[in-house]
Specification:
elongated; mainly alpha; 54% helix
Length: 598
């Protein structure tokens, strides 16, 4: 007998044990044919509607709700089943069940899982849920505000994240939830205040190792990111670039525009960035990566300086001491919920465009009273620098070439990802610090290239953060990280080509500068800020960035000189043919044109 026949044969007078066994067999059954699946889902939904919402009789009783919803969840995991659940009556039924069953949290959560799975598999269902007939978005915001456990927070956040993924489908909803105040929300505020409170709650839950707190934080941050990215594009927003004020909404770049209604999100995001437990040996894992994704959308300027960097004195420049991977706080184990597949988020293009963007200004008050057990202010610069140091030390141990296949293999251990995806957002955040605050820029530069830096050996060969950054500038496989790293070093050096070449040696940054339109070594300038000599007074070679050694006289015969000249000619000719060297920069071609060579 098929599961459809087994369930259809049940009546209100069937033994409770038989009904329970039938529902359990449906939940654990392999996929059934599409017509039977659709018919069975509708039968169960209709029975739940009758007994729990309408108060009439059916095959089921209220105590069967959890098993029945588990069966619906299993049947709805395929697109055909999700299509049945995506109808207005069925989505409304599931949302109403989640509310009616709040006294039995497991059953209520099971109803929300059915909704979340449906939205994941059926994109049109997201618009349906937000429709006036259902008003599911606002219902889920209320559920988020009342959530008492990480699982409650996870499910309501997941639904709201999916509903706000596309600004074209949910523009009016995003605008309304950011702007509408509610008396029963924290501080009589909006969803921004709800999210801020829940972020602080989840920080404490993660520190205590409470189950699903890591998953809940991740999905709440995905919702946060959607609001930070989309809302400033949907409403009049502030920009410190006059040329951008008239940009069409779809052309507004993440981080270029800001709206003060979002101010309340920065303090809890900074607290989460500073305090959540880190995984080991790679600290850049979820939810920390999602925190960074959100932070790079927020301006770094004078109005928010105290929140980004705390109240530290400007003169302090002590080098941070990164923790070794072995001593980093162990990760709190928290697998993603087995019924909630995480959709791919198309952030790559946004990050690429954000590399060269400067965070906008014009923000006002970010103040919100934090929980008493969480720090109110902290300095994000050492934390970001330590994270970059620890992460690159893990993925690029010693002086390994970033393009070594072993690096790409290591990136795929925890999933099919790349060094670009893992590290780029953090590098962009540090770039934001350098562009937005002179003191942060100075400290980062002093840590990376201190005055007493040992310049007796090639900088790009060093087995430390400086060496890894410079080796990434020559990477072929990690193109986005290569560009991001170049922009970070450039911002660190006052966005000045002469200063950049002075600190790191023109040979190490020539490729980056060429792509910025600087096709030859910039002139040496004593006012660039870059050190022309070491702390001990030795001259620095402007090409290598290392100590300039007196040239030794090479004793060569005329034949040996001629052979070396031929080798150089072949080398420059090859560089010119491959496009790596412009013809105007080929010294041999210049010599021929000027008649210096016959």
């Amino acid at each position: 007998m098929s599961v459809l026949q087994a369930y259809s044969s049940l009546t209100s007078s069937s033994p409770r044990a038989t009904i329970s066994q039938t529902l359990q067999s449906i939940a654990g059954a392999p996929p059934i044919n599409h017509p039977s699946c659709k018919a069975l889902i509708q039968l169960i939904i209709d029975d739940l509607q009758a007994v729990i919402i309408n108060g009439s009789s059916s095959r089921l009783i209220k105590d069967d709700a959890l098993s029945a919803l588990s069966a619906v969840k299993g049947l709805g995991k395929i697109p055909q089943g999700a299509q049945v659940l995506a109808s207005v009556p069925n989505l409304k039924c599931l949302i109403t069940l989640a509310i009616k069953l709040e006294s039995t949290p497991d059953a209520s959560n099971e109803a929300l899982k059915c909704v979340a799975n449906t939205l994941l598999l059926s994109e049109p269902a997201r618009t349906t849920l937000l429709s006036q007939e259902i008003d599911g978005g606002n219902i889920c915001i209320d559920l988020l505000q009342k959530s008492a456990t990480p699982e409650n927070t996870f499910l309501s956040s997941r639904i709201l994240f999916l509903c706000t993924a596309s600004p074209h489908q949910s523009a009016s909803f995003i605008e309304s939830i950011v702007e509408t105040k509610h008396a029963h929300f924290p501080r009589n505020g909006t969803i921004i205040d709800v999210i801020a409170l829940k972020l602080d709650d989840l920080i404490s839950s993660m520190q205590a190792g409470i189950k699903m707190s890591r998953d809940a934080m991740t999905d709440l941050l995905k919702l946060t990111f959607n609001l930070l990215v989309h809302y400033p594009k949907l409403v009049p927003s502030e920009s410190k670039y006059p040329a951008l004020e008239s940009s069409p909404d779809e052309q507004k770049v993440m981080g270029d525009f800001w709206n003060s209604r979002l101010d309340g999100l920065l303090p809890p995001l900074v607290r989460a960035f500073q305090t959540i437990p880190l995984s080991s040996p790679n600290p850049l894992t979820s939810p920390l990566t999602h925190i960074i994704h959100s932070l790079i959308t927020i301006p770094v300027d004078t109005s928010s300086r105290a929140i980004w960097f705390g109240t530290r004195p400007h003169s302090h420049s002590t080098t941070p001491q990164p923790s070794s991977p072995e001593s980093t706080t162990s990760s709190l184990t928290g697998s993603s919920h087995d019924d909630q597949s995480t959709p791919k988020e198309p952030k790559a293009k946004q990050f690429e465009r954000a590399i060269s963007s400067v965070i906008s200004a014009g923000r006002r008050s970010f103040c919100r009273s934090p929980r008493s057990d969480l720090p109110s202010t902290a300095d994000c610069v050492p934390r970001a620098y330590e994270l970059l140091d620890t992460t690159l030390a893990y993925f690029l141990p010693g002086d390994i070439d970033p393009d070594d296949p072993a690096v790409r293999d290591l990136c795929k251990i925890d999933g099919d990802t790349s060094l670009d995806e893992i590290v780029c957002p953090l590098v962009i955040l540090i770039t934001r610090f350098c562009l937005g605050d002179d003191d942060a820029k100075t400290r980062i530069r002093q840590w990376l290239v201190p005055e007493d830096l040992d310049r007796t050996h090639p900088l790009e060969k060093r087995a430390d953060l400086l060496g890894r950054c410079l080796r990434l500038l020559a990477s072929v496989y990690h193109s986005r990280l290569k560009d991001s790293m170049g922009e970070m070093l450039y911002a660190m050096c006052d966005s000045n080509a002469t200063s950049l070449a002075g600190y790191f040696g023109y040979g190490n940054v020539a490729g980056f500068l060429f792509h910025k339109g600087v096709v030859s070594a910039p002139p040496v300038s004593v006012t660039s800020g870059a050190p022309p000599i070491t702390a001990s007074g030795l001259p620095i070679n402007p090409i290598t960035g290392t100590i300039e050694h007196p040239s030794e006289t090479i004793d060569m015969t005329d034949e040996e000189k001629e052979r070396e000249a031929e080798k150089l000619f072949v080398l420059f000719d090859r560089l010119e043919k491959t496009g790596a060297l412009p013809p105007s920069q080929n010294p041999y071609r210049k010599a021929f044109q000027e008649g210096k060579m016959g």
